[in-house]
């Protein structure tokens, strides 16, 4: 049995839980307990605040965890990072009030910067030999300049909308993060084995992300041209239609590749185009 820590409530919790359920690992969450047992896999889930996950895994309270790389680096615990999850992508950036003129990193010399990530920020400025005054605050970092608590901030950005609405502009992108799967460094062979099995379940689900199963009817003499536009995996599956000279073509393809090619497909005579969702790609 292994114990996996995931975020109880927040930006990583939904995707972490959803991934587990897509891997066939159903967890009884009905009572929102701190601990929940998985039905058909030797797995127990512990729900924690994201800040507490690196510590819980490094001390062995949990054997593994899904947490932002930003928290792993900030907390400086010894952990093994064994898988990048592909979600929770964000960056931590330096931002200033938008009216300030920014000439380069020297701007920060002697200034006060508010952040919840003092370790990452301190390292950034130390490497660049700029002396700044770092103010650690736990939340609402983006309002610090407007209330006179700091000259600038160092905070998480995804689209930048929050910065703009607080009258700030991003000037340096310092740290890029995504959710990672971390493990304790001293696991027993048994637990390592279970973790290996668990992580190998993630891959088929991850491989199918953004992929679709595309079907269309096509004049048979257009198959080759369409295959060069949308090659699919090894090659398309072609099935004859009852009507002579026509076939049905099936391809696994990234959804983002379909849209720009739709008009061309139509002009080549494609009809009855269906896009089906794909659950897992095992190999
Ligand atoms: P907790 O209550 O668990 O301490 P929190 O408020 O500290 O939660 P969240 O805002 O839920 O944290 O973010 C959790 C993690 O999700 C962050 O540490 C980061 O790795 C990632 N993250 C944060 N903001 C974004 C964002 N805007 N887009 C994508 N990922 C983000
Ligand atoms: Mg937190």
Can you walk me through this structure?
With 283 residues, this protein is an alpha/beta fold. The protein has 3 domains: 2-87 and 178-208, D-Maltodextrin-Binding Protein, domain 2; 90-176, Periplasmic binding protein-like II (D-Maltodextrin-Binding Protein, domain 2, 3-Layer(aba) Sandwich); 211-277, 2-Layer Sandwich (Alpha-Beta Plaits), CATH 3.30.70.120. It contains 9 helices and 15 strands. The chain has helices spanning 13-22, 53-59, 69-75, 118-127, 161-165, 189-207, 223-229, 255-258, 262-267; strands at residues 2-7, 35-37, 43-48, 64-68, 80-84, 90-97, 112-115, 133-136, 152-157, 168-177, 179-183, 211-219, 237-240, 246-254, 271-277. The chain starts with a strand and ends in a 6-residue tail after the last strand. It binds adenosine-5'-triphosphate and magnesium ion. Magnesium ion binds next to loops. Residues 7, 10-12, 49-51, 68, 70-71, 88-90, 156, 158, 177 line the site of adenosine-5'-triphosphate.
Bound molecules: adenosine-5'-triphosphate, magnesium ion
- What count of domains describes the coordinates? 3
Q: Over the alpha carbons, how many angstroms does the gyration radius reach?
A: 25 Å
Q: Could you say which structural class the secondary elements and strand pairing correspond to? A: alpha/beta
Distance between the termini: 27 Å
What strand line-up does the widest sheet have? Answer: 2-3-1-4-11-5
CATH structural architecture of the largest domain: 3-Layer(aba) Sandwich
